[in-house]
């Protein structure tokens, strides 16, 4: 079975949802090692260069599931990505709440 990549699809004007591995080490509320973020840059930049809008999804650590836990926030990863792209990255703290079965902002 041949798998398609982002280069096999016309992305102009499309919204792309991309799962990225931003489960990066943090220290004092900042990204300690941005290797995983840098590894995603070529694909992220390609999608943006093709005229698509991009929604990135990831996770950080293993939260206990007891509501919002600040130490697992991906906001520092979003800030690191913005610096690497030299572009604005809008960060949204969205979580799926199983009991509500819809998207909500914490």
3D architecture notes:
- Helix content is 25%, strand content 19%.
- The chain has helices at residues 35-49, 75-85, and strands at 15-19, 26-27, 30-31, 53-57, 95-97, 102-104.
- The strands form 3 sheets. Strands 1-4 form a two-stranded parallel sheet. Strands 2-3 form a two-stranded antiparallel sheet.
**Series of H and E elements:** EEEHEHEE
Number of strands: 6
Poorly predicted regions are none
Terminus-to-terminus distance? 40 Å
Largest sheet: 2 strands, parallel
Mean pLDDT: 83
- Going across the biggest sheet, name each strand in turn: 1-4
SSE class: alpha+beta
- Hey, roughly how much beta strand do the residues contain? 15-25%
Shape: globular
Residues in helices, as a percent range: 10-25%
Instruction: Provide a count of the helices.
Output: 2
Radius of gyration: 15 Å
Sum up the structure in keywords.
globular; 25% helix
Write the layout of secondary structure elements.
Blueprint: E1 15-19, E2 26-27, E3 30-31, H1 35-49, E4 53-57, H2 75-85, E5 95-97, E6 102-104
Parallel strand pairs: 1-4
Antiparallel strand pairs: 2-3, 5-6
Helix pairs in contact: 1-2
Q: What is shown here, in short?
A:
The protein is α+β, with helices and mostly antiparallel strands and 106 residues long.
């Amino acid at each position: 079975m041949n798998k398609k990549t982002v280069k096999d699809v016309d992305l102009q004007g499309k919204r792309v949802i991309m799962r990225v591995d931003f489960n990066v080490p943090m220290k004092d509320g900042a990204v300690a090692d941005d290797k995983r973020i840098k590894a995603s840059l070529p694909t992220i930049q390609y999608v943006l260069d093709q005229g698509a809008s991009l929604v990135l999804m990831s996770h950080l650590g293993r939260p206990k599931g007891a509501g919002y836990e600040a130490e697992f926030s991906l906001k520092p990863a979003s800030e690191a990505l913005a610096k690497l792209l030299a572009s604005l990255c809008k960060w949204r703290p969205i979580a799926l709440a199983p009991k509500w079965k819809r998207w909500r902002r914490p």
